[in-house]
Amino acid sequence: MKEITIAVDVMGGDLGAAATVEGAWDAAREYQGVKLLLVGPQETIQAELARLKAASPNKNAHMLEILHASEVITTNETPTVAVKAKKDSSMVRAFHTVKEGRANGLVTAGSTGAVLVSIFTFIKRKPGIKRPALCALLPNKTGHTLLLDCGANAEVKPEYLLQFGQLGSEYMQRCMGIKSPKVGLINIGAEEEKGTPIYQEAHQLLKQSGLNFVGNIEGREIPAGTVDVAICDGFVGNIILKHTEGLSKTLMAIIKEELMAKTLSKIGALLAKPSFANLKKRFDYREIGGAPFLGLTSLVVKAHGSSDAYAIKNAIGQCVKFERDGY
Amino acid sequence: MKEITIAVDVMGGDLGAAATVEGAWDAAREYQGVKLLLVGPQETIQAELARLKAASPNKNAHMLEILHASEVITTNETPTVAVKAKKDSSMVRAFHTVKEGRANGLVTAGSTGAVLVSIFTFIKRKPGIKRPALCALLPNKTGHTLLLDCGANAEVKPEYLLQFGQLGSEYMQRCMGIKSPKVGLINIGAEEEKGTPIYQEAHQLLKQSGLNFVGNIEGREIPAGTVDVAICDGFVGNIILKHTEGLSKTLMAIIKEELMAKTLSKIGALLAKPSFANLKKRFDYREIGGAPFLGLTSLVVKAHGSSDAYAIKNAIGQCVKFERDGY
């Protein structure tokens, strides 16, 4: 088994070092042969590790290594300014370990803007890849659809859309074990000539790409799970991603409101509680752990700002699977 | 009360003349002083009217008038070809009544493509309006958000987006009785400089428009109900519209699946049935009846292909409200 190293930006998430260090601690226990570089304030990390050790032993504790970084980039800072100024921040230091080849992958729950700037500043793109893409794994009827780009490129060229298809297909093979991922181009109709000239041209490129391209897909086919990889520009993708979050949340709130409006329904809801818990789990972003950036020489996973230990552990797991081509 | 005439394309919907004639019959009963022009095969319409009359009398039956049309445009035909060739189709004849000023509004459940072509062929735009927009009323947490454009214009200019704001605002005032509708520009971030150059420029135009413009909104704010009118190009809008349909459907299917997986949950679901029925009603497109096309000298409402009588009645109601500026 290939020995790999993943850098973990310990600071930056809303829950601070406690969540990220615990996530890494759990990941060390779960994934064998994975060294984890904990990047952040040494004393804080040591204190967290001591706390975890006291609670329950971990035979892989020696796989956790601390890399000191004194500063933190917050979500309130202008990303370009912060990345340039805070050379000793946990995020910048973590990205440096990837740049120098010391780490094979990186997990951070820090500001998306700062992550984007760091990627453009420190990380090389894969040979031939024009633009990196921010992805999201959206839950669908039977599994997940990888949506890209989700906001790294508001404007695209047809060639970028083709490459998004290639990158997404590779990811779904390596991380999700799908042999020949179905790829769809998000559009406003199934016919080849639908959409803007950029999408029309991208359709032709994808058709000739050798990918398992199923053609254009409409908005409703993303949740239906028609494809494994759904491609679009970053403007459309970002709106779909946030619309998914918003609509799921609103629907669940409305269901709750309706159930609580009547006594019988309240009892019904109580009886159905385990089912609702199961449902929640299926739509829980923590199961995936974070959004991958693809098209780089290393996998970078942007964990949700509010990630807890479980989400961080799974985000690390994504990097492990990607590096090991499944495991 | 202003006497108005609404043309109803009797053919074109999946349920045929039975549903549309019954919808018009119910509308005649509900809305006073509204003449309804039933456009389609005379014999078929007469038979439906006789059936309805036998079932229950309608003191406003005299407000229903038949305009014979022998042909039908189906969803399988190429819209441009069909609209040109089928001069005696119910859709083309219905559009002619609007063109000639005989009707003030039009309801059709026919092919969206053919409706678009008919609009461009027969209906004048409001003075100064560059492009008509297809709208959708999406249910949100507390009411509805008008989304436009939903597919009539895959590519836009900043000026079109401004006009969509004006048209949407006017509609929400007249049909929904909202005094100063909140207008938002769909974008990938709140900051003015977010998105593509077209959206950046549109933001500035909207800011200076005198509309109640609240700025950029992200995808999650549509279901949250942050605004009354959400503006975007037809590519983005079509994807949001279909994504809403698809995600709501998938979520409900998953909830059902989870509830049916356990006996206790099944009982719970049974007890909560009235609440789920209420929920369904809140998300039922039939309550609104159809998608309005705005920017024309008359209101055209495209009813869903599978519209039943209730949906058609409400689609007619939209035209009535629009013409009467609420009622």
β-strand number of chain A: 11
What is the rounded distance between the termini of chain A?
9 Å
Q: Quote the average pLDDT of chain A.
A: 92
Total helices of chain A: the number is 12
The major pleated sheet of chain A works out as: 11 strands, mixed
Structural class of chain A: alpha/beta
What oligomeric state is this? homodimer
Summary of the model, kept short:
2 copies of one chain form a homodimer. Chain A is built from 12 helices and 11 strands. Chain A is an alpha/beta fold and 327 residues long.
Strand and helix layout:
The structure is a homodimer of 327-residue chains.
Chain A: E1 4-9, H1 16-30, E2 34-40, H2 42-55, E3 64-68, H3 79-85, H4 90-99, E4 105-108, H5 112-122, E5 133-139, E6 144-148, H6 158-176, E7 182-186, H7 197-207, E8 212-217, H8 221-224, E9 229-231, H9 234-260, H10 263-271, H11 273-282, E10 291-294, E11 299-302, H12 309-324
Parallel strand pairs in A: 1-2, 1-4, 2-3, 4-11, 6-9, 7-8, 7-9
Antiparallel strand pairs in A: 5-6, 5-10, 10-11
Please tell me about this protein's structure.
- The structure is a homodimer of 327-residue chains.
- The first copy, chain A, is α/β, with parallel strands linked by helices and 327 residues long.
- Chain A has helices at 16-30, 42-55, 79-85, 90-99, 112-122, 158-176, 197-207, 221-224, 234-260, 263-271, 273-282, 309-324, and strands at 4-9, 34-40, 64-68, 105-108, 133-139, 144-148, 182-186, 212-217, 229-231, 291-294, 299-302.
- Chain A starts with a strand and ends with a helix.
- At the A-B interface, helix 8, helix 9, helix 10 and helix 11 of A face helix 8, helix 9, helix 10 and helix 11 of B.
